[in-house]
Design brief:
Growth Hormone, Chain: A
Length: 380
């Protein structure tokens, strides 16, 4: 069990690290390749596009072929994508590498979480899943450091090393015993999609990924315009991820004790107000604290969303691999729409319109949650 938890932690750490590594590197790539704000948004969204393409296939592979094979497919994609990103000389090559990175991520997340849940005693499931998700937050924390290193030392060295890391993780995966495949039932899938907890969890998973994706494009470019470099931008993302790592277990504990709805309401209210603050496009002295607090509020929505998806899937009898595959797809939809459309709209109207739209989505979600008939609690 300990070896499996270490492997799962390493896998989700690398996945979230790759996703967040682009933030401090984006201004450097924009200058190097003369990218427009629209193309910068598309490049950020490419990872999510790959995760969306791989979401359902990754879940099906984890359920029908077994989690170990799904993880190995994901690591193969990650290694090839890292080599591509290391040596790509144009927008097309970077875009293809990011898509492949995201697709590999969908397979590794579905396979690793299915593996962990299936081999964990029920009384320790929440504890170990929380530990794995905490490591994923630290991956997001470390990602900007990788981006800064790539901006200073070159993409070839840093992403070439990540390709070697994929080989090491594949070797560790082969040393562990696998588990039998699951039965993927169409009727269970239909029942889960009609389950309020499961469907609500998927929607709640998409919203913060949309907001974070929008911020990942607009905030680094805004700070670069006022003279901030890759190191300063990376430090800002480090602060946000550090706060997210602190709040994640606290939000999880609150959702266990007071139901899933209360932390969602608090996070949505904070997210709406802070996103309105970002729409003003203030100077860094005010903009950076707002940015750090906003990303923390967005991240606080992931923990109850994950819990709602797990609760609804278990109540519906849905295969774990399919549930985690749908979770990946829901995250990917938001992470794809946010940077792609946010960057395109900002290029025409300015940053304030995408941020205003994001604040409006948070307000609408808050109204929907407030109309919920009763708090949703985890099953005892």
């Amino acid at each position: 069990m300990r070896r499996l938890l270490l492997l799962v932690g390493a896998l989700v750490f690398v996945d979230t690290m790759l996703y967040s590594a682009l933030a401090p590197l984006l201004p450097h790539l924009t200058r190097e390749l003369d990218l427009s704000k629209t193309r910068a948004g598309v490049l950020v969204a490419a990872y999510a596009a790959g995760a969306l393409l791989g979401g359902l296939p990754g879940g099906a592979a984890a359920a029908r072929l077994g989690p170990r094979r799904a993880v190995l497919v994901g690591l193969t994609a990650m290694g090839l994508a890292s080599v591509g990103f290391a040596f790509a000389s144009g927008f097309g090559g970077l875009f293809a590498a990011r898509v492949l990175q995201g697709c590999g991520s969908a397979f590794t997340w579905a396979g690793s979480l299915t593996w962990l849940v299936a081999t964990t005693p029920r009384e320790r499931r929440g504890e170990l899943l929380g530990a794995a998700l905490g490591v994923a937050v630290f991956g997001a924390l470390f990602g900007p450091v990788v981006g800064v290193a790539a901006a200073l030392a070159g993409r070839g060295i840093v992403f070439g090393a990540l390709a070697g890391l994929a080989l090491l993780l594949a070797g560790a995966t082969l040393r562990l015993e696998t588990m039998p495949a699951e039965h993927a039932s169409g009727s269970a899938l239909r029942q889960a999609l009609g389950n309020r907890r499961f469907a609500g969890g998927l929607l709640l998973m998409a919203l913060p990924s949309l907001l974070l994706g929008t911020v990942a494009v607009l905030a680094p470019l805004h700070l670069a315009r006022v003279g901030w470099g890759a190191v300063s931008i990376g430090a800002t993302w480090l602060c946000g991820a550090a706060l997210e790592a602190v709040q994640a277990p606290l939000v999880g504990r609150l959702s266990d004790r007071r139901g899933r709805v209360l932390p969602v309401r608090i996070a949505l209210l904070a997210a709406a107000l802070l996103t309105l603050g970002l729409a003003a496009g203030s100077r860094p002295l005010l903009y950076v604290p707002l940015l750090v607090l906003a990303t923390t509020a967005y991240g606080a929505l992931f923990t109850p969303a994950f819990a709602l998806i797990a609760d609804g899937a278990e109540a519906s009898g849905l295969a774990r691999g399919i549930a985690f595959g749908l979770m990946n797809a829901a995250w990917a939809v938001g992470a794809l729409v946010g940077p792609a459309i946010g960057g395109a709209v900002a290029a025409v109207t300015g940053d304030w319109i995408p941020f205003l739209f994001g604040a409006g989505l948070c307000a609408l979600a808050l109204l929907a949650v407030r109309s919920s008939p009763r708090p949703t609690r985890a099953p005892s």
